[in-house]
Queue: 2 jobs
Job 1
Amino acid sequence: MDGPGDKANELNHIGPVIYFHVFGREFVVLNTLKAAFDLFEKRSGVYSTKPRLVMAGELVARAQTSILFLSYGARLKECRRLVHSWVNKHAVSASWPAQEAGSYKLLGALLDDPEGFSEHIRTQAGSVILKLTYGIECKPVNDPHIAMAEQLSKITAQATQPGRWLCDSFPSLVHVPAWFPGAEFRRWAEQARKISTELVHIPFEIVRTSILNGTATPSWTANEIVDEKGHVKSAEEARDLITAAGTMYSGGIDTTVGAVRTFFLMMARHPEIQRKAQAEIDSVVGHERLPDINDRDSLPYISQLITEVLRFNPIAPIVPHSLDEDDVYEGHLIPKGAWVMVNLWAILHDPNTYRDPEEFRPERFEGTKEYPAEPDCTQISFGFGRRSCPGYHFAMSTLFYNFTHVLSAFNIEPIKDAEGKPQIPPPEFVAGHLRAPRPFKCAVVPRSLEKVKLVRQAVVAASGI
Ligand code: HEM
């Protein structure tokens, strides 16, 4: 299997915390939940900033365009306050109708073009976030805003690649002019910076213009863009709003897409788990309607399925924080500015915590007479302390809608070869700053004609939302 997995297993043998110095930087890897909690939760006052990333943060301007890269301080707090006001535990219920409609549209797209399932997942995740954040209606295919988010995601993966950029080890190189021989990195960064900046400014300007024209539709940005005196804020005045909204856009799509694609992969590989989840939905919801958010508490196996997807494939396998002052942990000095990384992959695949961690088994969270339930890892999949993911409630309801709707209406099956033999997709992942399934094929087949009708009705109902 690709990714940090094998490395993580090696690291587990080395110890709970490892320290090393490479690329001119200090690194500390936390391989256990205890170490992660001791530092990121109990000492969150110290460990809530982010490591300095010269290429990604400074040259590509991600430290101005995304909360994820912001140092701890007043700006971060204001951006997090904005995001929290949109998607906290209570506020998130206002997003449910849009999330539900987006999930219905996903079902419709799966019905019309099942082979394109992977793209439909991205289109729907992106459309819902763009609609709520900016009031933008995305095109059902080839939407330029969604394409831009994908492009920025690739750039971010390249810009954060450890050891790739000399300027991360020797920050003084940033002063080399872009035209200087050997300064290709500066030219690459200039292009990347343009995309990173446009991604957050273009949709903001669309909202601003629509407010000035009186054509704006409600959105998180539209609600914040007018100040107390009724003036529409300029880009300078709305700096934190631009960053907060831009992070929803750039950070909320790929993470959700990675989890939903993992779900499709696991369903194609595990028909018995799929049948069990469908049986639970059928017994609670019946066949006359699609599941809704009020069914959530009555579907415990679905909750376990979501948790197992997040455990089996941690979307953010490594969670980096940093510190603004020296600290000592278990006798070791952790210097100011070090990269301190929770190895979430190792924690969630630790055989001492999760029996047969390489098996996909939602039942592990249930507990039986023979085996106690294994620890629920939903929360920690979203990070730690003061930097934990503010999109948690939003992401969890998206996953609930997508998983239950798809299971209610479709069977996800391996495709068959020319002789009719099932081609079970392998559990292969590509890991960068995010971890996602390698492209794979599966068949998405409606469960019955009644379900087809139900989906068509749901798509019509969703068209006005
Ligand atoms: C399955 C879906 C998701 C997973 C697994 C996930 C996971 C994470 C993780 C691990 C972090 C880093 C936390 C840390 O540094 O301790 C993070 C940060 C963040 N996430 Fe998510 N996330 C998901 C979806 C979303 C969504 C849908 C949104 C927005 C709508 C979102 C917004 C953010 C933001 C703004 C941050 C930066 C927080 C900060 O640096 O202070 N995430 N996420």
Note: The chain has one domain: 55-314+369-463.
Job 2
Amino acid sequence: MIRVESLYKSFGEEPVLKGITTTFEQGKTNLIIGQSGSGKTVFLKCLLGLFTPEEGRIFFKEQAIDEMNIDQQRKLREDMGMVFQGSALFDSMNIEENVMFPLRMFSEKPREEMLERVNEVLARVNLEGVNSKYPSEISGGMQKRVAIARAIVNNPSFLFCDEPNSGLDPRTAILIDNLIQEITKEYNITTVINTHDMNSVMEIGENIVFLEKGVLAWQGNNREIFMTDNKNVTNFVYSSDLFKKIREIQIKEK
Ligand SMILES: Nc1ncnc2c1ncn2[C@@H]1O[C@H](COP(=O)(O)OP(=O)(O)OP(=O)(O)O)[C@@H](O)[C@H]1O
């Protein structure tokens, strides 16, 4: 579980996060959604420790980051997996080396042991036998699977995904969403996903945090999001062409 208390972050005079308080639950796919510029990436970067908030606190398993010593912070880093937008694989490394990278960063295990773990996670994302291929030799969907394998190789308690669906066709996007959700349940991970894909909201929105100009304007799940009276949320939901058409049909039928 991750608990966030009154988080404030600004750049110069510009306040970006204006007092966010929320909880991301363990074993669930927690989504951060909102219009472009609402502060989703800044929020995710605060959770990852890439930005330091001016005010507020973030608790990982009930321990505040600002109370952790260097050793505890290092352990927390090891306990975090990250799927970057566009996969961010290392082009000059083959798939095996890419997935092994976080293991080498945090452990001094013998290579055979690391390889065993690499093969285990590659099998989990249905990518056996691609070890010696390079990122440019596999499809975008496969690259995402490799990115997921790399993110879970250290068996993390926390998984962060920045727009994991970007650049994928709708069918592959749903497969990736489902894979992330399955892994979240299987390993009981606290997963936080930054997205503006309404299909993801529908498919895996177990706990959705809606940001509006740096404020947490609404929180709920993928059933509740269609019932809310919050106008900003409704505008966001029906901003996608598909949902706009469904909405028009619903209104006509009333
Ligand atoms: N490093 C930075 N320095 C200054 N301003 C920043 C920085 N990072 C983000 N901002 C500002 O913070 C605001 C929120 O940006 P953020 O990237 O979090 O939005 P977002 O909701 O993730 O948008 P998108 O969906 O387009 O990625 C924007 O006004 C942006 O210009």
Note: The longest strand covers residues 14-24.
